[in-house]
Amino acid sequence: MKTAIEVKKLCKSYSNIKAAQNIDISICFGEVFGLLGANGAGKSTTVECILGTKKQDSGTVSILGMNPQQERKRLFEKVGVQFQEANYQDKIRVAELCKVTASLYRNAADYIGLLEQFGLSDKLKSPVSELSGGQKQRLFIVLSLIPNPEIVFLDELTTGLDARARRDVWRSLLDLKQKGLTILLTSHFMDEVEVLCDKIMILKKGEAIFYGTIQDAVAASPYEKLEEAYLWYTDEEEKEYESI
Ligand SMILES: Nc1ncnc2c1ncn2[C@@H]1O[C@H](COP(=O)(O)OP(=O)(O)OP(=O)(O)O)[C@@H](O)[C@H]1O
């Protein structure tokens, strides 16, 4: 399988904080990769270095064969990014925001179809500012898919969604995966990770403490469920304190 994203020995520090230490990631086309870890573990830093919006101190990143620092414009034709908040005009309506976004891309997707897929077709004329948190979240996923990307980066994609909406989002993403989309996501929900991810990396204080399949993550822990295994991987510090 060909590689969509290749990260080698990525390091990034902020003064005395080592936010990413020697991170190696390899993601094949059509794979869903989950970057996991507690708050402050280094997920956003790693993603931003991969996207080229932050410059790493050392190490290399190749995404669709491109260097994200040097080929930013070409890259963003092919890569979608879901933001937690977007900059938009105060009173802009859902369809207008999608239209403006689509106009930025040569090969834009049918946003009406995407809005339907993500349960927002009755909100076309609603001002974005009047959407609920969960509806906005889904709109941001739609915006990330408008470029018709080969790779999409999804940040805590279902935070704030109700149980039904989460499942609907999962189904839509699995559908897109089947069509060949490569996905890099961050999540704090292990049920979601189990449904969506082929491979995961668990970060702790900027270091990769696990990298592999969900099955392997569970097998290498004393537990049988990913949720428990994940807590075991990320919680060791507490155990250290307890034993002192
Ligand atoms: N611009 C910055 N300047 C200084 N320190 C930063 C900066 N950005 C992040 N950090 C620190 O780097 C570490 C990693 O942060 P990062 O945002 O990458 O974590 P994260 O895993 O994405 O967290 P979360 O789940 O809360 O989004 C944290 O200790 C954070 O305080």
Automatic annotation (TrEMBL):
GO terms for MF: ATP binding; ATP hydrolysis activity
Look up the signal peptide feature and give its range.
none
The family database entries (InterPro entries) matched by this protein are listed as:
AAA+_ATPase (IPR003593), ABC_transporter-like_ATP-bd (IPR003439), ABC_transporter-like_CS (IPR017871), ABC_transporter_ATP-binding (IPR050763), P-loop_NTPase (IPR027417)
This protein's record includes keyword Zinc-finger: no
Q: Name one Pfam family in it.
A: ABC_tran
Family, according to the entry, reads as follows: Belongs to the ABC transporter superfamily.
Name the UniProt record assigns to this protein: ABC-2 type transport system ATP-binding protein
Give the organism, scientific name.
Answer: Kineothrix alysoides
